[in-house]
Design brief:
The structure is a homodimer of 476-residue chains.
Chain A lengths: L2 H15 L5 E3 L6 H4 L12 E3 L4 H13 L3 E5 L17 E5 L6 E5 L4 E5 L4 H10 L2 E2 L12 H7 L6 H4 L2 H4 E7 L5 E4 L13 H4 L8 E8 L1 E2 L3 E9 L2 H14 L4 E8 L3 H7 L13 E9 L5 H14 L5 E4 L3 H20 L8 E2 L5 H15 L4 E7 L4 E7 L6 H21 L15 H7 L2 H14 L14
Parallel strand pairs in A: 2-4, 3-4
Antiparallel strand pairs in A: 1-2, 5-6, 6-10, 7-11, 8-9, 8-10, 12-14, 12-15, 13-14, 13-17, 16-18, 17-18
Helix pairs in contact in A: 1-3, 9-11, 10-12, 13-14
GO biological process, one term (chains A, B): respiratory electron transport chain
InterPro entries (chains A, B): FAD-bd_oxidored_4_C (IPR004113), FAD-bd_PCMH (IPR016166), FAD-bd_PCMH-like_sf (IPR036318), FAD-bd_PCMH_sub1 (IPR016167), FAD-bd_PCMH_sub2 (IPR016169), FAD-linked_Oxase-like_C (IPR016164), FAD-oxidored/transferase_4 (IPR051264), Oxid_FAD_bind_N (IPR006094)
Family (chains A, B): Belongs to the FAD-binding oxidoreductase/transferase type 4 family.
Chain lengths: 476, 476
């Protein structure tokens, strides 16, 4: 059978199984938004985009794909930054969008848990939790369009990892369609269960390479009634990290965010929004946005004030102010958002999401700055990020007048010099963005031979035909 | 080659690789304590007990075992309750004790982490953390002799899971010798790292079936400066669980323990210690021990008082008292310990560590009590445990005059009726004790066909020769 005939037969089978709007031809204009990645850097190809409305339809799709030897790229909100859901095989691949599996199944207030279809948008889950006076703490820039299934498949991070953990730490149960079409059922809301291998841990972070997550049960938390936000200035990242340790102790781990912003980023925030103005008098090398959430019975203001007093006393803090209103707190956070906006205005640049041990954060930033200064004259480093998790976005802007192709050509080499530094420190090139296709080679390169072997063995155990997201995570 | 010759050759090879005290003949008197399980119910057999002093020696042992086709049972403190480390093949199995790999490798106060050999006793880790004014929160009855490697291999639970999670949640990095003798290196102290498959999650809870954990990097926490303990009386488990939800909200998740004790257990505590006396006036169906830990900057007393006032108001609480001293707090906890002691005095009985969703705890206890009352007249149920985690030890004492053989014969059937109830509720027969050999059959029976298949595939991927802890977790 020719490839064309095989695809045509498969499309017939899909149309037989799904309703009309469930099957989009890969060449149709409607398919484009599923084939373009969020960065806009890549346009992929697929023979069809499929939009099942039930778990049963997902299983049917998998069986049809298996029969016609089509690969499957599961896709959530398609907001990833590493081309994890962009394939380029118009004859051999389908995109399976979970967007119509979008029902919140149930909320159990006594168990503090929520069950949801994989395609529910993160913000909807947050809203549903809030309606019950609870908190689903996962918080990302893309929360208005990313889906919980994608968050789980990439073990997404975000701004509140400090207090509540990565997505992995929030997942109690999973349900997934395996590559043989069977449904793996693990939708348990148990908080304590140590029976044998925990399969869901493999699916979390597997980026669609082992199966298709169709349902999730997550932990909820009490919604903090009091939120206190402070904007601080420190002499160095060293001081900032020591301040963070002090904050953990004094605030009893009630901090929800501890973000650092190198002073060089302030100009970028002003580029993003000319009205931006940090709420501090002096010109501090490191700006810090710190947030704490607690119940009404705890005086969060006193906690922060106690911390600031002790930090001044210990010489860890240059200046600091506590938001007196929600509007002021939002203004502090706006600086963090504006600096991302400013980078976007500068066009193509080098982005990272590095992580190291907290004790290595200052050394990592120093070394990266030195590397750029010595090897990439005219390029401008920016260091900011989730310092409380050891996760720094060390980005680099190209010289103003550099042509895009030259930037694109230099990017892998700029990244390589930063990655070398992180690798030497035992860190990660991917704190929260994942591997996908754009970082697959560096991922594979860093893995030890033992890990590569385990990885292949696990992949074969789940997906012997190699039909799940080929080209993601692993070389094809 | 005869089996005897093969074993003799292997023993020679072990003696060549390890020092004299590293090899104990399976028949030697010194071997007995490694072959007897902690419950004393089983005496196993092995051709040798090996006590390596380094990771390199562990690797050598694995290679020798592979060559001579000997199975390996890794053993930590040997304090498990499910015969996870007791083999019975005197010709084909060695016990590999990690007890001489007992060095704390390093503590990183900025990163709030500790690296340790797998054989370090849990209490030593807790002490080392405390010396640095930090907390390693894992807390178990056996903490004076269990080892961190065993805690990880079984994903141990304990008293503080509520606040700090299971062992799984405390592990940032692992190092393990794989069945081919290679060393899998994952001793990262990163808090945010979402690169691909997280192999360590498979080793956690694998009960020695996939490899030998030799090193661990764990999270540390600020040591709570204030600890408040309350002893409460409630009308029902329903009220207790609602109280717990209220406590989470008011105390901003600073609770470290929420234990329930059915009133029927108080007689058992008095059997354990005749001086035991609950600190409440009335005769409450449910006793609760609640503990909260926080920094010096938070008034924990006010939090508990606020909670008690609101709980009285809401009708969730009958009576309650807050410990006025550490001695009084210890007296509260002694009741919990005495009731375990009392059960031991009653001799052989049915022990469980069931878990269900928090919302199902009252129903589960009711159903179990009814099942015992109707099907096992003369047997006495006891319900107590870590209610904040949905984990109840629903134990059953046999009639006073029942001969031991009769108890032993009835035990599986008593367990079966309790397990059926938990299974119907989507719960677990093993919240924290693990599967081992004694619960392998029920484990296997409950697994879905999909999970059984995945389990076998993963086992084969790691351990194609089937040399790791045969008979544990899986049928031989």
């Amino acid at each position: 059978m020719s490839a064309e005939q095989r695809v045509a037969d498969a499309l017939d089978a899909f149309r037989h199984s799904l309703d009309n709007s469930g099957v989009i031809d890969g060449n149709a204009p409607d398919a484009v938004r599923y084939l373009h990645d969020w960065t806009g850097d890549y346009l992929g190809a697929a023979c069809a985009v499929l939009r099942p409305k039930s778990v049963d339809e997902v299983q049917q799709i998998v069986r049809i794909c298996s029969k016609y030897r089509l690969a499957i790229i599961p896709q959530g909100g398609n907001t990833g930054l590493v081309s994890g859901t962009v394939g380029n095989d118009a004859q051999g691949t389908i995109v399976l969008s979970l967007e119509r599996l979008n029902r919140i199944r149930s909320i159990d207030p006594t168990n503090f848990t929520m069950r949801a279809d994989a395609g529910v948008v993160l913000q909807s889950m947050k809203d549903a939790a809030e309606n019950e006076d609870m908190l689903f703490p996962l918080a990302l820039g893309a929360q208005g369009s990313c889906q919980i299934g994608g968050n789980v498949a990439t073990n997404a991070g975000g701004i509140n990892v400090l207090r509540y953990g990565m997505t992995r730490d929030l997942v109690l149960g999973l349900e997934a369609v395996l590559p043989d079409g069977s449904l793996w059922q693990g939708m348990t809301g148990l908080r304590k269960d140590n029976r044998g291998y925990d399969f869901k841990q493999l699916l979390i972070g597997s980026e669609g390479s082992l199966g298709i997550i169709t349902g999730v049960e997550v932990k909820l938390f009490p919604r903090p009634a009091n939120v206190e936000t402070a904007y601080l200035g420190a002499e160095s990242f060293e001081s900032a990290m020591r301040l963070f340790g002090m904050a953990r102790r004094i605030c009893s781990d009630l901090l929800t965010a501890f973000e650092v912003i190198g002073s060089e980023c302030i100009a970028m925030a002003k580029l993003g929004n000319p009205d931006t103005r940090p709420p501090l008098e002096g010109d501090w090398p490191v700006h810090i946005i710190m947030e704490l959430g607690c119940s009404a019975a705890i005086d969060g203001r006193v906690l922060i004030e106690t911390l600031l007093a002790e930090a001044f006393e210990a010489g860890l803090l240059g200046d600091g102010t506590i938001a007196q209103s929600r509007a002021q707190a939002r203004a502090f956070w706006a600086i963090r958002e504006d600096l991302v906006e400013g980078q976007a205005k500068r066009g193509r640049h080098v982005r990272t999401d590095l992580s190291v041990r907290l004790s290595d954060v200052p050394r990592m930033i120093d070394s990266c700055r030195q590397a750029i200064a010595s090897d990439w004259p005219g390029w401008q480093p920016l260091a900011y990020g989730h310092a409380g998790d050891g996760n720094i976005h060390f980005n680099v802007l190209p010289p103003h007048d550099m042509p895009t192709e030259e930037i694109a050509a230099a990017t892998p080499r700029v990244l390589a010099s930063l990655y070398d530094i992180v690798r030497d420190l035992g860190g990660s090139f991917s704190a929260e963005h994942g591997v996908g296709r754009s970082r697959r080679d560096v991922y594979w390169d860093w893995l030890t031979p033992e890990s590569r072997q385990l990885m292949k063995a696990i992949k074969s155990a789940f997906d012997p035909q190699g039909m799940m997201n080929p080209g993601g995570l692993m070389p094809d």
